[in-house]
Amino acid sequence: MESELELWKKSGKIASEAREYGKELLKENANFLDISNKIEEFIAKKQGKPGFPVQISLNSLAAHYTPFPEDKSVLQKGDLVKLDLGVHIEGYIGDTALTHEVSTNKNQDLIKASKEALNEAIKLCKPGVKVCEIGEVVNETINSFGFKPIKNLSGHKVDRYILHSNISIPNFNNGDKTKLEEGMVIAIEPFATTGLGLVKEGKLSSNYRLHNPKPVRDPISREVLKFIEKEFSTLPFAKRYLLVKFPLSKVNFALSNLEKQNIVYQYPQLPEKQEDCLVSQHEHTIYITDPAIVLTK
Ligand code: MN
Ligand code: MN
Fold it and tell me: Is the pLDDT of residue 11 over 90?
């Protein structure tokens, strides 16, 4: 039997490989659906499963864009792309992200700001460190590049089958004196922006998760819910993931029904409050010990 640490390492390694593979796909005219499908096939080939759907968020959109069914979006020259992905094995999730600029080099400082902030934060990671100290170094590093961190987005503790567990890892000093503990797994994800440093809730994203499972009367919704519980458990999934089993009309019907009954939750997209700004993000999943282990390196 594999130890928990071995499983964390295994999923982290596949997530890291998928991120680097995915980066090569971020080219001018590349279609979002193709990129996501290829990355998700890559993960499957390595015997992993998506910890959540591949996220491809552009420019001022900080997070939570996954391709819709029949999405026609393509990358254009100058796009600043946040590629954020997760891999799980038996519920042990590796969560990682990078930022890439398509065919230009105009925003390398902004990209570097979130990357350096992540590196500086990782240097602090060991048992006993307060999460506000991590936030402080993230904020200071991003400020030193002349940008702001996004304060209402944060990293998070990761637990088995729980992507966003009960501890937040802030991107500024929020005064939270919660300490990192031996054996904890956390994701640190600094966002650097030319904007206000705040995101708002935008349009719906077609990212969902099971929220409050309970019996449903309608047979189509019941069948779709059963599939969701079996395939994704408590992890986020995309609407398009349901199309392997059901036609789009059934999926739309069932999801809107399940959403109305608060059984599934649909995440909104998270754009910066300032419309014309740019956002970069980097993320690693880290096993806390001394020295810490960067699982998605
Ligand atoms: Mn992520
Ligand atoms: Mn994360």
Answer: yes
